[in-house]
Write a structure and sequence with these properties.
alpha+beta; four-stranded antiparallel sheet; 27% strand; RimJ/RimL family protein N-acetyltransferase; GNAT_dom; Acyl_CoA_acyltransferase; acyltransferase activity, transferring groups other than amino-acyl groups
């Protein structure tokens, strides 16, 4: 098992490498990209196991920084995560498109978005934005952190920031873990919709959920 100091140093080194690549908006070789992703996933698994073994399981939110973006990019490369989310970007490996997307999000004052930390480690993000004229909430958790209650804790804390009600959320019908997270936070299924899923290459049905006053 990796010790805490080694993990921290490795984490910093990885961020520095990715920050350099992002600053140059490099066209990464896909084979290299996915090899690096696999190494990172193994590292994260060891780090999370270590933190859990010493009884540390803290979830908190903070403002997004530029250093978070390489991690978000890395997380969106996972094919399983993309399939579950369903409604994702056309090409998760397109770094330029990713940066353009996030640059717009960060600059948009109508969007509230926070980075999710688990034991001080960036694990994903949660956001509030307007879609189809209605306020919505959405979140993303790196697959390495699934099944640990992080999404529920992060969303619950985020809802303390976002007071608007009703507040809506969407989830593919077969994305049961996400639906459970939303329901634990007070959301209820109110209707259905469908849309084309880039991750699945077909039309996918989804539930629309709502959080009302007093929920």
């Amino acid at each position: 098992m990796l010790n805490g100091i080694y993990n921290k140093d490795k984490y910093i080194i990885r961020i520095n490498i990715y920050t350099l690549l992002f600053s140059k908006r490099s066209k990464l070789n896909k084979e290299f990209l996915f090899t690096w992703k696999d190494l990172y996933s193994k590292y994260v698994e060891e780090l999370v196991n270590h933190m859990e073994s010493i009884g540390k399981c803290e979830v908190e939110l903070r403002d997004i920084t530029e250093e978070d973006l390489p991690i978000f990019f890395e997380q969106q490369l996972d094919s399983t995560a993309n399939y579950m989310a369903a409604f994702t970007t056309k090409d998760p490996t397109d770094m330029d498109a990713f940066l353009d997307h996030w640059t717009k999000i960060i600059a948009d004052e109508t969007i509230t978005i926070k980075t999710i930390l688990f034991n001080g480690i960036v694990t994903g993000h949660v956001s509030n934005f307007e879609q189809f004229g209605e306020p919505e909430v959405s979140y993303w958790i790196g697959k390495e952190y699934w099944g640990k209650g992080i999404a529920t804790k992060a969303l619950s804390e985020f809802l303390e920031y976002i007071k608007v009600r009703p507040l809506y959320a969407r989830a593919a019908k077969d994305n049961l873990p996400s639906i459970r997270v939303l329901e634990k936070c007070g959301f209820k299924i109110i209707s259905e919709d469908e849309g084309f899923s880039n991750a699945r290459g077909k039309v996918v049905e989804e539930f629309i959920l709502s959080l009302e006053n007093g929920s």
